[in-house]
Amino acid sequence: MKRFAYLIFVVLLAACATTPPQPTPLPPFGAQVSALKSRILELVEAERQRSNGEAKPLMLDPELMNAAQLHSEEMAMKGSFDTDNPNGNVAVNILLGDPKFRGVVGENSAAQYFTPGTRIDTDGFARGFLDIWLKSTDHRMNLVYPRFEKTGIGIAVGGNTIYAAELFASDLGLPEPP
Fold it and tell me: Considering the entire predicted model, what is its pTM?
């Protein structure tokens, strides 16, 4: 009988326990990354037009997108920028390793911290990346160089850090190699 009373007590006690509310699931991080890439592109285009009315509109290029993404992923994996990489810049190496690549390429990279599990403020982070790049003479020159006509943006997350890389390129009107 004692055993039965104990069992009833445990069941009643469990029924009184409340489950803490679960956090509302965030939209897939991939959607936030895609929105962040789009917003970076919008802000870069606006800055190019504001700073240099001669700048050509940038077209997203699949090869540059791939190289920028691989570069961002490597930075996130290593927790550092290409300056710490003895093999140099992954994105630039990918492009220069393509025998059909011609012209010039510029690369901007930056990182910002965030709180994992929270919604990413795409506009705030995009503006943050743009501000970082505008404060650097070399990165700003890449942004406003009027001959660049193609771009690719990569975003990757490592721990509590978002890494961004943007590549700019132009074939400078050079003929395609044989």
Answer: 0.78
